[in-house]
Amino acid sequence: MIITNHTEHAELGQPFWRLLCSDFHLGSACSDHDAIVRQLQRAKDVGARVLINGDMFDAIGPKDRRFDLSVLHPLVARKKDLAKAIVDMAMEILMPFKDIIDIIGIGNHEETWINYGYNDPVRRVLEELAREGGKAKHGSFWGYIKTSFVVPGHRKRPKHKLLYLHGTGGDSPVTKGTIDFNRKGRNWVYDCLTFGHKHNMVCAADQIADVSDKGRYVERRQLNLQTASYYRNYRQLKDDEVLDQSYAARSAHPPKPIGGVFLCLRPDSDPDTGELVIRQDFMSDVIFPMPKRRKTKPIDPQLQEKDQAA
Ligand SMILES: [Fe+2]
Questions:
Q1: What is the pLDDT of residues 120-164, one digit of tens each?
Q2: What angle, rounded to 10 degrees, do the helices at 33-46 and 82-94 form?
Q3: If you classify domain 2-309 with CATH, what class do you get?
Q4: Ligand 1: distance of its center to the CA of 161 in Å?
Q5: How close is the Cα of 185 to the center of ligand 1, in Å?
Q6: Labelling 192: which of 18, 73, 144, 174 has CA 20 to 30 A away?
């Protein structure tokens, strides 16, 4: 379990965005690079921090039963050093966004690749990004991102706990992963859960009842956000491509939505209790014009220490 602490300075009501995304499947002929870049650019435009939640790489090598040259992206298919080729490809896509990426985790595709004895391509990308000044961290399979808000004029620092994991199991064509929401909600404490893996996009809001520090009955919203992928299961084939079906099409998976989910957090004053709370909501795109967000103040190491102790 990887814990990441983040301190955010925000006015009351000021939105703070995260782009939660997963399953780029870089290295695959089915990875939609344009969609990835479009969404990362939107994240940059609204000042969002980015979590890439596993399966950033398709990582299908010669030892994988799904492997044949047609599953590889044309830019890497003829490279003998496939491990380097997929990392180079990722660098080209991610480099313009190095300053907004907080965490890159791994998924089952990287795990299989690592188990076959290749090295961790996420670690390689993080090393390359760090060389260029990037601060992104390895997110492993699981982790929490705890965001503490510093609001001018308020001593209390409301916190938001985001639990992420890549996801497991089949693609759940009927229940679409909603059973995982309930399973995770039974054993983990979080304000928002996100996972990918199944390539579905399903978002749900629950209402959780509690008693506040001041002994008042309160309710808060809990979000469960399942992010889709950037892997296109189907495309129109020509006569000389009839055997070039994606491995998802060969398994008769349905077409799936494309993209991640934007999580919006806002510190607010609860009208009933007067206490500072974090409002949260989600959307698959930020479709209204956003003013440029001011730059976040540099983190005060003393304040950060206090947060971690809290
Ligand atoms: Fe995936």
A1: 999 999 999 999 999 999 999 999 999 999 999 888 899 999 999
A2: 40
A3: alpha beta
A4: 24
A5: 22
A6: 174
Out of 38-42, 62-66, 123-127, 265-269, pick the least confident.
62-66
Distance 253 CA to ligand 1 centre (A): 13
Contact 64, 12 (CB under 8 A): no
CA of 21 to the centre of ligand 1 (A): 11
Contact 48, 188 (CB under 8 A): no
Q: How many beta carbons lie within 10 A of that of residue 188, not counting itself?
A: 13
First CA to last CA distance, the chain: 19
Task: Specify whether the CB–CB gap between 87 and 125 falls below 8 A.
Answer: yes
User: Given the structure tokens 């089915």, which residue do they identify?
Assistant: 30
**Domain parsing of the chain, residue ranges:** 2-309
Percent of the chain whose pLDDT exceeds 70: 93
pLDDT of 204 strictly over 80: yes
CA of 209 relative to ligand 1 center, distance in Å = 34
Query: What pLDDT, on a 0 to 100 scale, did the predictor assign at position 291?
Result: 61
Distance in Å, CA 23 to ligand 1 centroid: 4
Per the document, the length of the chain is 310
Q: Which residues pair with 142 in a beta bridge?
A: 165
Contacts (Cβ under 8 Å, ≥6 apart) of 292: 45, 47
